[in-house]
Protein 1
Amino acid sequence: MRTQRTLTHIRVNLTGDRVVCAMKRTANGGDFRANLSRGGSGRMVTLTATEQQQCVQAAKAVGLEFAGVDLIREYAKAPNFFITEINGNPGTGIIDITGYNYFVDLIMYIETKTGQTAQPPADSSTPATTESQEEARKYPDEYVALQQMDQHGQRMTATQNGMLAFFRVRYGRIRVQ
């Protein structure tokens, strides 16, 4: 008698020696590929300690400190898993699925590793302006634009949300007009 196999596709994002988020991906319409970019869907999932350890080791084996690791869980008689791919650019769709912005972990990891925290550039060459104009100039234009979108309740993509979180960690929260 043949045993039925059930396969679960999982994307795991990690920074340094730590898994920061993971999602189960489901293929769309009979396609075997479960990538979100190919129309797949996802939901947050919890990994075993062994799965987490193996994902970190796999990323280290290819020299990556920030990665997306794909694994497949197989359920036949007992659960088993296989690492199938390691990505140096893990994508941003997982942020919408899990609600967890891993860019914050990446920034903290880089700052800890380098011992440096970036400061906003000082620009003394600009003429005196009003306080709100001066405040806005302290920050990158993209941060100001994203903050305005957020303050006005405009829908943002996962990438825009990630960048906004990055800027907030880097420069702190701001209010713009």
Protein 2
Amino acid sequence: MFPIGFIGKTGSHRIFHELRSNDMFLGLLAGILFALDTVVLELAMCTPAYSDNATVVFLAPYISNFLHYAFSSVWLLGYLCFKKQCRGAFAALRTRGGQIVTIANLLGGVVGMSAYVAAIHYIGPALTAAISALFPAVGALLAYVFLGEHIGWFQLFGLLVSVTGVAVLGYAPSDGGTENQVLGFLFAGICCLSWAMESVLFSYGFPKAGISQSQALLLRQMLSAVFNGLVILPLLRGWKWTVSVFPDRSTVYILLGALLLTGSYLCYYKAITAIGATKAMALNITYTAWAFVFSAVLLNTASDLRSVLCGVAIVGGSLAASVNLKPEKDGKLQNRNENMVLWKDHLKE
């Protein structure tokens, strides 16, 4: 964690100044909504439908994951049908930009999330969360190499503080040996890399896709729902149990969570487009800190000193990683504005 004195008047002034911008606030809001979604899903998992049967307890992450993506797709379909924009989402699959966005969607929603659940199975949620939390740092490196996104010393320091806070917050020593740890670490690494590549590829392909963030998100959620419904659940023989828990009141929680998830990713995608992949990832990862706040309020869970200190480090570091101490050069700012104009022109067509 860094003291305010280290930031100095210039750094703290830039942070509060840029927080007033809608673009930076969208990135922060993405993390807040995702944290709320996480807590709402926890409420669903605490219901008897998911906690009374040993088989359902094992299948709960896979069942809820499928329903989560399916309901999110329904929310988006309803919104886009109302706006008469559904057809444009699928038409983008024929464009190079749309294909790149689709690859990003597959990496984040299908490969990344599947690897995350598999890693939890082999090494537990603590180590999985700590390793996967490195994805903003990996993404920043990829964005620097492939997108030319510059990150200064102040932003790099903030990113490292935030990622360290997430890793410390999520890690707890194991009370026993776990089998197949190498496989677990491999899946966690795949998850981390997939989430990082999703952000970078989306940032690159979206301006050329000619679709809105809502349409891009529809492709992501539908691909994820189809993969979970046609591959994961049949492999685990989970459809029988999915049907059995569907009429339960827990489904209402998952439906609400899907709405929050949809809002979170829309904000995240808009932030990537507006402020770049590196800053958007740094702001999005604050969900780990907000989740502790909402858990304390909604679930009455107690927070220790470590949780509070890590939460401050995560949010403070993420804010520091998302500001520029120096204004962007005209050339870089012009390129970003041209990208924004490009996809807006496509939408008008």
Protein 3
Amino acid sequence: MAGLIVLKPGVDWIATGGLFDWTLEFLISRLSDRQTTNRLQEIVDNNLGSLWIDDLPAAVRQEIVSHWRNGLVTAASNNCRRPITSSRKRKDDQLALHDVVELREARPSEQLSAGAVGTVVDVFEGPPPIYEVEFTDADGRTLAMVTLRADQVVRRDGNL
């Protein structure tokens, strides 16, 4: 299940359930407001899948943004089980993080047509490698996060 964090109306972030929970747990361990940390823990424990930042008190919103700006990426890097690959360091024709790909066939369940363009946001090593691909609209809002095999996409040169 995916998780949704709405920063303010029209500005939101959708992530896989595990990443969503990890992000809330990151905040739970750092926020000073106990009422908010209890609310975040309830969201994680009950698999509620969404958080509306705009509903929180202004001081808590500022604290959340500060923690995200000053520690989220570092904490994620320190907790990463495998090194983050770069598109410059790939094995043969294997896809890498941030590669731009195109769907070979339509995925009606995700409302994606053949030729839809997405970005590799995670690489799961192992035979065969599996890729988490994010598809967005023209404004950068996530339309779908899909786990795909290499034979389901083709790498594109250039940008979205």
Protein 4
Amino acid sequence: MMQQPRGLAKDVPDRAAADVRWKPERLDPSSYPDGVELPVFYNDLDTNAHINNVALGRYLEHGRFDAHRRHGINALVRPGNLLTARVAIDYLAEGHIGRSLSVRFRVSRIGRTSLVEEQGAWQGGVCIALAESVLVYVEDGRPAGISAELRAACESLMRT
């Protein structure tokens, strides 16, 4: 059962659970095969003592990088060959200092030259953000086919 984000009145429904844009499994941290626990730092807070939205983007970026490193994706591409074409972040609840941030990661689709990655960030059992990134594999400045080795590494991060 999802907890209600802090700061909402008791009669206000959980915004994330009520949002029909997201399939329920996107809000389930166990549907992401990889993740990392990150501490929240004081300098990442805004004037209301919430995790700043730009800082949250950095936490998600770190989660992507960490998953790529642990699953061998970084070793399979030269710097500059796997480009981020799009990142979209939906902020669902406030994050605070004093609790770690659980950033979960998975690959949702692999095409011929690109892949889509999905992430969620949880704090205290509450999903505070969902993100989607599109990465394109390039060679000589143009989209190129994803190698079998890179495809296999990415498939290891897909939801089973």
